[in-house]
Every structure is written in C-alpha cells, then in structure tokens.
Amino acid sequence: MSLTNKILLGMLLGLLLGVIFNLLLGLDETQTTATTVYGQWIQNVVINGIFDAVGQVFVASLKLLVVPLVFVSLVCGAASLGGHNRMGALATKTVALYLLTTAIAISLAMGVAIFIQPGAGVDMAVSSTYAAPPAPSIKETFINIFPSNPVQAMAEGNMLQVIVFSILLGIAISRTGGEVGSSMKTLFEHLNEVVLKMMMLLMQLAPYGVFCLLAKLFATIGFAAIADLAKYFFTVLFVLLLHGLVVYGSLLKILTGLNPIIFFRKMWKVAVFGFSTASSNATLPVTMRTVEHDLGVDNKVASFSVPLGATINMDGTAIMQGVATIFIAQVYNIDIPASGYLMVILTATLASIGTAGVPSVGLVMLAMVLQSVGLPVEGIALIIGVDRLLDMVRTAVNITGDATVSTIVAKSENMLDKSRFDDMSLNAEVDPV
Ligand code: ASP
Q1: Is 359 in the pocket of ligand 1 (CB under 6 A)?
Q2: Which one of 74-78, 120-124, 221-225 scores highest in mean pLDDT?
Q3: What's the domain range around 202?
Q4: Residue 413 gets which letter from DSSP?
Q5: Domains in the chain: how many in total?
Q6: Which of 39, 60, 279, 356 is the most buried (most CB within 10 A)?
Q7: Which whole-number Å values give the CA distances from 343 to 149, 327, 329, 351, 372, in the listed order?
Q8: What angle do CA 270, 235, 264 make, to 5 degrees?
Q9: Does the residue 145 lie in any domain?
Q10: Residue 10, φ and ψ in degrees, nearest 5
Q11: pTM over 0.85
C-alpha cells in the first residue's frame, strides 16, 4: 500500500476508534474521567498514554523539520533568484494574493452568516470567563519581522524572521559569486537533499501518528457541545468547504487554466496532515514538498511563498472569525453598522497575518476583531467548546490556500512545470528527490 493510502487509512481508523471510545467512555470537556475501571484503564494507558505519546512524537518529528527545511530551501531559492529582477514582483504578487484571498474568505463568511443568522434566537447563558490575552499591535508585528539574532529566530521558530534571514543570506551568496558563491550554493543544495531525505524517513511515522492524534482527539471531543451550537458550527463548516473547494478551485481555473481536480487530488493528503495536527506550521514540510514536487512549483517560488503563507495566510481562520463575529453580535443583540463590516474585513485580514500557525490561535486573534467593532470579547466563551474540531478543518483550508496562491504565482511567473502538475503518479512522500 502506498504511504498516502496508509495515511488516509490511519485517519479513518483513528476517527472511527476515537468515536467508539467517545461513545463507550462518555468523555468530554465536562466529564474528564471515565467511570468504570476498564474505562479508566483505556483512558490512562491507551488514550492518554500510547496515543498521546505517539501523537506528540509525530508532531515533534514534523516540527523538527520546519526550520531546517525553510532555511535551507529558501537560501537555495534566493541564491538562484539572486539579482533576478522578478524577485520584487514575485513577493508583491504573493503577499497581495494572500491578502486578497483572506478578504474574500471573511466577506464570504459574513455574507453567509448574515443570511443564515446562526445566532438568532440562541439563548445562552453568557459567561464572562474569557479573558482575552493582549493582541500584538501592528507596529510590534512589523518590527518583529526583522531578526536581531538569526539563531534566536531559529530557536524560537519565528518563521517571518527566518524567512528574512534566509532571503538575505541567499542574496548575499549570489552577489558573492565566483568560486565562493557557487560552492556555498552547492553546499546548500546538498543540505537540501539531505533534509529532504530526513523528511522521507520521518514520513514513515505519519500513518501511525495521524491515527493516534485523531483517535485521542475524537475520544475526548464533546459532541454534545456541537449539538448546542449546531447552527454556528455548520455555518463555519459550510463556508470552509465553499471557500476551500469552490473559491480556490475557481481562482485556480480562472487565473491559471490548470485543472482544479488534479490540484485537490494532490493536496488531499496535505489537508489530512493539517486536519490532524491543527497546525499550519507543523504541516509546513509536507505542504512545501507537495507544492514543489507534486504540483511542479519551482523551488524559487515555493520556498518563499509556502512558509510565508503558513505564517500570514489564514483564510480558514478568517472564516471562523467572520461567522463568530456575526454570531456573537446576534446572541448579544448588538447591531453592527455597515462601516463595522468593513472594519471586520480589515481587522480580520490583518489578524490573519498576526495569527501563528499553531492550534487555537485563531480564537485569541478573534478578540482583536471583536474589539474593533465594540463587541464583547467574553462572547468567545460561547464558541470555545466547538472550536477544536473547527480548528482542524480551518487549518486544512489555511494550507490549501497557501498551495493555491503558490501555484497561481508560479504559473504567472512561468515557474510552474505543467507536466509535473498533470502527472498524477508523482508522490512527494515516497519519490526520492
Ligand atoms: N490552527 C490554525 C493554523 O495553524 C490557526 C488557527 O486558526 O488557530 O493554521
């Protein structure tokens, strides 16, 4: 069986076993301990023991690749672009498309939510237990892009700083030129091959990792909370699917003429990684490799656009924030004026830049969006119970957005290998470089 099929099988079995445990043990956010002796054994040894440990090792093995892969691959990309005068255009196009897709996502989310009215008639005991952590200011976010210490940036996994440092180093290598320049470039190309080999090795763990992560999550997820918030939950889910399939599919077709079905079939396994880890950052190695190897995007584009996207492009998160804003306004019976909607689009697009690609951060940034239109931040407490599952789905959308924009930019810059894109037999996880 191919590794991709094994990963899909791991996902299905994990989901299934998790749901069975969930039904048997009745665990959720309110009941955290199983009632029978057998139940407690399963909970302590199997779910919180084996599944949790293997799941965590799997996520660690993915995260471990992030900094080396982005650093080495982006230095290679920037070194070969070097004096290339398309670099500025490439970066501008990428950032503009990331912002545009996020603005579309949030507008779509608010439009659908206004139509469906997920919060109308909802009578919930409004708790005031959610204390919003302070959101970073725009000025701080901007200053933070520039590293003062590259080693610290790497140690902290600060992606934007790693990106800036790698691009500078790449440009410096290409400007150095001569024997030194070319041997440095070769060194990084060789390093890139080695890091990719390491990724192939660690990928063997993926089917088991995905299985354990999902089995543990679904064993402890509160399905009852979903029933209470069904309208909100399914509105977010609907817009996520609409944006992920229809908007990305149409953008791809209209702007590049490429076949969206091929794109989605190749991205499916990456979405599974996003879904099971709920982290764009942890999925980054797989996204990057698939975009480059399977979709045929040139390394010069992919090594820049994918890590940047994993950090600043969060369309799925913006969708949750759009629906949540309307939902909270309706529950509290507060009218948002027309100018307020524009404010939400603007803040949510900016918030998406500041949202780190790790689980649940979208909720924290929602506080900033709510504050921008004077809605009570405590409203977040209403939706927190169903956020875990939505976080998983929106992360899958976030990374699909990164891949879509990378493909569009590459095609427009003549840096996409169409024969690779069309070749369905390519599979990044098993094919060697
Ligand atoms: N978990 C999301 C991601 O990593 C961010 C969020 O919406 O919380 O892409």
Answers
A1: yes
A2: 74-78
A3: 3-426
A4: T
A5: 1
A6: 279
A7: 35, 16, 14, 12, 7
A8: 25
A9: yes
A10: -60, -40
A11: yes
C-alpha of residue 356 to centroid of ligand 1, in Å: 7
Is 280 close to ligand 1, i.e. is its CB under 6 Å away?
yes
CATH number for position 343 = 1.10.3860.10
Q: Is 311 in the pocket of ligand 1 (CB under 6 A)?
A: no
Instruction: Look at residue 128 in the predicted model and tell me its pLDDT.
Output: 54
Q: Would you state the pLDDT for residue 132?
A: 61
Q: Using the mean position of ligand 1's atoms as its centre, give its distance from the Cα of residue 159 in Å.
A: 15
Instruction: Name the residue of 63, 312, 317 whose CB sits within 8 Å of the most ligand 1 atoms, as the mutation to test its pocket.
Output: 317
Q: Which stretch of 8-22, 131-145, 244-258, 306-320 has the lowest confidence by average pLDDT? A: 131-145
Buried b (16+ CB within 10 A) or exposed e, 63-83: bebbbbbbbbbbbbbbbbbbe
- In angstroms, the CA 338 to CA 30 distance is 39
Which pLDDT score is estimated for 89? 84
Within a domain: residue 432?
no
Which residue shows structure tokens 């993915």?
A: 62
Tell me if 394 CB under 6 Å of ligand 1.
yes
For the segment 360-376, what is each residue's pLDDT rounded down to a tens digit?
Answer: 788 888 888 898 888 88
Evaluate: CB of 362 within 6 angstroms of ligand 1: yes
The Å distance, Cα 251 to ligand 1 centre, comes to 23
Question: Mutation test of ligand 1: which of 63, 383, 398 has the most ligand atoms closer than 8 Å to its C-beta?
Answer: 398
Closest CA to 390 of 233, 276, 274: 233
Kindly give the number of the ligand 1 atom that is closest to the alpha carbon of 316.
Answer: 7
The predicted pLDDT at position 432 comes to: 45
Please, what's the b/e burial string for 364-394 (b: 16 or more CB within 10 A of its CB; e: otherwise)? Answer: bbbbbbbebbebbbbbbbbbebbbbbbbbbb
Ligand 1 center to residue 105 CA distance, Å? 15
pLDDT value, residue 126: 59
Any domain includes 431: no
Q: Residues 188, 69: contact at Cβ < 8 Å?
A: no
Residue 384 lies in a domain: yes
* Spacing, Cα 428 to ligand 1 middle (Å): 24
Radius of gyration of the chain from its Cα atoms, rounded to whole angstroms: 22
Q: Is 353 in the pocket of ligand 1 (CB under 6 A)?
A: no
